[in-house]
Write a structure and sequence with these properties.
CATH class of chain A: Mainly Alpha
Number of strands of chain A: 0
Distance between the termini of chain B: 70 Å
Radius of gyration of chain B: 22 Å
Shape of chain B: rod-shaped
Order of helices and strands of chain A: HHHHHHHHHHHHHHH
CATH superfamily of chain A: Formate dehydrogenase/DMSO reductase domain
Oligomer: heterodimer
Distance between the termini of chain A: 29 Å
Order of helices and strands of chain B: HH
Number of domains of chain A: 1
Shape of chain A: globular
Helix content of chain B: 55-70%
Largest sheet of chain A: none
Mean pLDDT of chain B: 71
Largest interface: A-B, 17 and 17 residues
Chain lengths: ~400, ~55
């Protein structure tokens, strides 16, 4: 058989295999499906109106509040949650700590999907979404713009994560030679990805540097980029714990008993990392607080709200992580990870939405359509995640 | 002749230095606390058996 015939037969095999894999598996009538399917349908209808009649038809955004829930939650918070990907790949591929190797694939998949969906949600929030291509094709480059850096980094990091995850796809499609070639690119992609991540996690914070008069002084500081970067580390670690807890319950058939036991040790390790990072983050907060002499700012509503965020959702979960690691209490670690994630949501929304133009009389409140579309983005990501992990060798090698 | 004057800790960097020092001490304590053999973990069992033997 000549080379062309071999190639065409391989393509036919791949096509059949892919069509076979597209068929739905498992039960349809599950609580998650019952909630997510109507939400996605309603979200798609809202998106139709958003693209036909403009962004003002479905959101409460205005010239005074151009960034709302879609940017604040989907992009700014979602990207912080995806921070686990660069942390774990650094630990496994650069520091060579093999203990966490079994969670690399699922973490990279989570990160990749988070960037595709959450950073992809930028398209929804742009008044003229077709302009999203401008930073890439060179139409009016804004070299001195942080958004220019962030948009390029998002694109390059998505490619880097796709390369990191590609051996799994090749393994699933039974393309051994391709898998070996792609696996050889992993280390380079990881180092490139870590560099990009550190810069754009902090770059997202740097976006707010130009809004000094608009952000409440308790949340604004010249160190926002560093704070965003440090908090993305424990956000990522907490997300891995949270996501892993759900996966180990929902996909327990796909995960072997040995991996279940190993996972306990991994969770303890992640909890330890989260405790140390949160402690450092809290110290930075305290240092900025004293350096900027914010004493007089904590006596009103905004001050109490700030203390709720920093003490209630940073310091307390930090101690909970430390206590739970010391006492091998996985339950407390899981609760602490949820609290840490809530703290990240609170912090990012405070900077971008809640404490943004805090002095305004006409405040911005997201419309119900914005909430539905946000839920739609999250649910769609979970659908794609579920489709991939039930077919590809994500939790274990095939 | 110069006289010794008290410095206002709030107006100088004194408070920041104190915070930094206390952070370093607390950070070492935290790492030591987290690095000690976990209660109920494999390390803890070894420690107990060493004590009893």
């Amino acid at each position: 058989m000549n080379r062309t015939a071999v190639l065409s037969s391989e393509f036919v095999r791949l096509g059949r295999f892919f069509l076979e894999e597209l068929k739905p598996r498992g039960r349809w009538l599950t609580p998650f499906n019952v909630i997510s399917i109507p939400t996605i349908i309603v979200g798609l209808i809202i998106l139709y109106f958003r693209f036909v009649y403009g962004i003002g038809s479905v959101t409460n955004l205005s010239q005074d509040f151009p960034w709302g829930l879609w940017i604040g939650f989907d992009v700014v918070t979602g990207v912080a949650f995806a921070g686990g990907s660069y942390v774990i790949t650094f630990v496994v591929y650069v520091m060579r700590i093999d203990k966490y190797h079994s969670i690399v694939r699922v973490t990279v998949l989570n990160g990749l999907l988070a960037y595709i969906f959450y950073a992809g949600a930028l398209v929804l929030d742009l008044g003229r979404p077709w302009h999203i291509i401008n930073p890439i094709i060179g139409n009016s480059f804004g070299y001195n713009s942080v958004l220019f850096l962030v948009s390029w980094h998002f694109l390059l990091y998505m490619i880097a994560m796709a390369v990191e995850f590609s051996p799994v796809v090749a393994e699933w499609a039974q393309l051994e030679k391709v898998r070996k070639f792609l696996a050889g690119l992993t280390l380079g992609a990881v180092i490139f990805g870590i560099t990009l991540s550190i810069l754009h996690q902090s770059g997202l914070g740097a976006l707010f540097l130009m809004a000094k008069p608009k952000i409440h002084p308790l949340w604004y500081s010249e160190f926002i980029p560093i704070m965003f970067f440090v908090s993305s580390i424990y956000a990522g670690l907490s997300m891995i714990i949270f996501e892993g807890t759900i996966s180990h319950s929902v996909f327990k058939d796909l995960i072997g008993g040995r991996d279940h036991h190993q996972y306990e040790e991994i969770v303890l390790g992640l909890g330890k990392g989260a405790a140390i990072t949160m402690f450092v983050y809290y110290f930075f907060q305290a240092l900025i607080f004293i350096h900027e002499e914010r004493w007089q700012l904590i006596t009103d509503f905004w001050g109490y709200w700030y203390l709720v965020e920093v003490i209630g959702f940073v310091l307390i979960p930090c101690f909970m992580f430390a206590y739970a690691v010391r006492n091998r209490n996985l339950g407390v670690i899981k609760v602490a990870s949820v609290m840490a994630l809530l703290g990240i949501v609170l912090n990012r929304l405070n900077v971008s939405v809640i404490a943004f133009r805090w002095y305004a009389t006409n405040k911005y409140y997201p419309s119900w359509e914005e909430f539905v579309v946000t839920l739609m983005v999250v649910f769609t990501e979970i659908w794609v995640f579920r489709w991939i992990v039930t077919r590809m060798p994500v939790f274990r090698k095939s | 002749m110069e006289f010794y004057t008290y410095l206002n800790i709030f107006e100088t960097k004194g408070l920041e230095y104190l915070l930094l020092l206390s952070f370093l001490v607390l950070f070492i304590l935290l790492v030591r606390y987290l690095s000690a053999p976990e209660k109920g973990g494999p390390g803890a069992e070894e420690k107990v058996s060493t004590k009893t033997s």
